[in-house]
Design goal:
With 238 residues, the chain is mainly alpha-helical. The chain has two domains: 78 residues, Arc Repressor Mutant, subunit A (Orthogonal Bundle); 142 residues, Four Helix Bundle (Hemerythrin (Met), subunit A). It has a three-stranded antiparallel sheet with strand order 1-2-5. A two-stranded antiparallel sheet has the order 3-4.
């Protein structure tokens, strides 16, 4: 684990966070399996046996099957020709493609959102940014996990504010995989929460000013600033 003030990379093994009570069984199974993948308890390439997962999550097989189908749709799980499920292994080139997709589509979404977002939407974005700031300068596994949840909510809110259902559908699978996770999972790269949140503040200001070009440029810069160098993949940057 690499750490310094405000910068940390996620540890490879950590007990999964508890699942929120009150969820329906399929949602509980989904959250439980997803968190264990994110935390590294379920490792890339590992077979996800239904019997194993029912004991791990505490649900029956039917919710586990539904959760695995959902996770497969989001790219966390791969279903083999034998219909056995495995934790997805993120190839560096494919991981870089996720950054590319998000930079292009989310910058467009930010431009659209600048003309449509209202005071309530701005207030929700500011509240998320405040929550990220409240995580403080000392970064731990728990605060990084919380940051990934808040960061995903921030990006999804802007996508919703774009008013485009088709755009939201197109980018949903890429947003489902947190970029900080990809950085650590594939490149073992550090995550700077404070810098990311400063960029969030600038995006919010651009949206307040209803400046679509500024919002688009800020979003693209925000995503690309965390993107590992293409040279490490052995291919030129697009």
């Amino acid at each position: 684990m690499h750490s310094r003030a405000g910068v940390v990379s996620q540890p490879k093994e950590q007990a999964a966070a508890p699942v929120e009570p009150g969820l329906r069984p399929a949602d509980r199974a989904y959250e439980g399996i997803r968190r264990r993948i994110l935390d590294g308890e379920l490792k890339p390439g590992q077979h996800l046996g239904e019997e194993q997962l029912t004991g791990l999550i505490g649900t029956s097989r039917t919710p586990v099957r539904e959760a695995l189908r959902r996770l497969a749709g989001e790219g966390f799980v791969i279903v083999g020709a034998n219909r056995r499920s495995y934790v997805a292994e993120f190839d560096p080139v494919e991981a870089d493609t996720v950054f590319e997709i998000r930079a292009r589509l989310e910058s467009y979404a930010a431009a659209l959102a600048a003309t449509l977002i209202g005071p309530d939407g701005i207030a929700r974005l500011e509240a998320l940014s405040d929550e990220i700031e409240a995580l403080g300068p000392r970064v731990s596994h728990d605060s990084l996990t919380r940051f990934m949840m808040l960061n995903t909510s921030f990006h999804r809110l802007i996508m919703e504010a774009s008013g485009s259902r088709q755009l939201a559908i197109a980018v949903a699978p890429a947003i489902a995989i947190p970029l900080p996770l990809l950085k650590h999972y594939v490149w073992d790269a550090p995550v700077d929460i404070a810098r990311s949140n400063l960029q969030h503040r600038e995006i919010i200001e651009a949206l307040k000013q209803r400046n679509g070009r500024w919002a688009s440029d800020c979003m693209a810069a925000h995503i690309n600033s965390t993107r590992p160098l293409a040279q490490r993949l052995g291919r030129p940057r697009r």
